[in-house]
Amino acid sequence: MSQKNQTFEEKIERLSQIVRSMERGDVALEESLKLFQEGTELVRSCGKLLDEAELQVSKISTAADGSPVEEDFTDEPVL
Question: What is the pLDDT of residues 40-67, one digit of tens each?
């Protein structure tokens, strides 16, 4: 399956498989390099998905009258 068609969870699972294979140390050098490259691409892809998800997250807070107010998510602390 193409990485573009994989879900975040599928990408994380594949990344875990790659790590386990490389930790065992029984993979030839050429295959290890291919796995490393695939893993690096998966990390970038997962990071991008997380960044996109963060942009969609909304923070719910309470207005002065007690009603919920939806605000865009930011990394900045609320003062």
Answer: 999 999 999 998 887 666 556 667 787 8
Closest CA to 40 of 69, 6, 11: 11
Overall pTM > 0.70: no
Would residue 77 count as lying in a domain? no
Angle at 43 between CA 37 and CA 55, to 5 degrees: 150
Biggest alpha carbon–alpha carbon distance for the chain: 65
For residue 54, which phi and psi values (nearest 5 degrees)? -60, -35
Residue 40 within a domain: yes
Give a yes or no: residue 79 inside a domain.
no
Tell me which residue range forms the domain holding 65. 3-72
Domain count for the chain, please give it.
Answer: 1
| Structure tokens given for 62 | 């309470």
